Amino acid sequence: MRDLTRQLLSDADRAAIMAAVEAAEKKTTGEIVPMVVSSSYHYPMADVIGGASLALLMALLLTPLIGGWFWIGTWNLWVFLGLFSVLFLSGLMIVRHSLGIKRFFISNREIDEEVQEAAVTSFFKNGIHRTREETGVLVFISLFERRVWVLADQGINRKVAQDQWDTIVASIVEGIRQKRAGDAVCKAVADVGNLLATHFPIREDDRDELANLIVEE
Predict the structure, then answer these.
(1) pLDDT by residue (tens digit) across 162-192?
(2) Are 123 and 129 spatial neighbours (Cβ–Cβ below 8 Å)?
(3) Does domain 4-41+107-216 have CATH number 1.10.1200.10?
(4) Which residues of 15-45 are buried (b: 16+ CB within 10 A; e: fewer)?
(5) Three-state DSSP class for 159?
(6) Which of 140, 131, 134 shows the shortest CA–CA distance to 210?
(7) Taking 80 as the threshold, does the pLDDT of residue 37 lie above it?
C-alpha cells in the first residue's frame, strides 16, 4: 500500500496542490492542510480472512484430485489439511499484495471507522487545532480506502454546515476513483478556500501557520 501515493500523485501533482493551497489561503485567514496517506490502517485480519478463504476454496477443489491420484481417498482429511496449510500462506501473500482483493474482505464500517480515527489523530498530531483563530481545516485523503474526511476546527464549524463539506468530499472521492487524485485535490482546495473566504476573509496580519501539504507513504 505504500506505493499508492506515488502511483496517484506525481511530483507535478504535489507541486500543484501546494500552489492551490497557497492561492486559496491568500483569500482567507483559514489554514487548509491536505493530507494524503496510502492507507489509514493495514487491516491484518483482511489478510487472514482472505488468505483462509482462498486456501479453503482451492483445497476443496484439489483434495479429490490429489487423493484420487495417490489412491488414498478422494476426501482424505490429511490431504485436505496439508493443502490448506500450504495454500493459506500463498493466499495470505496474494491478498496482502492485491489491494483490490484485500478491499473485498474489509467491511465499509471498518473502513469508515479506521479512516475517521486516523483523520482525528492526524488533526491533533499536526497541530491543526492550534491556529491563532481556530480556523484550521484538515482534508484527510486515504487512497487505499478511497475515503476522504474533512475536519475543521471549532471556529469554522460554527459557521460552515456539514453538507458543504460533504460536497467537497464527494468530489475528491470521485477523482480518486477516476485516477485524477491530483486534479481533484486541487479543485477541492480551491472550493474550501472560497468557502472559508466567505466567513473568514484575509487580514493584513495573516500568516501561514501550517504545512500546505502532508504526504505519508
Answers:
(1) 888 999 999 999 998 888 889 999 999 999 9
(2) yes
(3) no
(4) ebbbebbeebbebbbbbbbbbbbbbbbebee
(5) coil
(6) 131
(7) yes
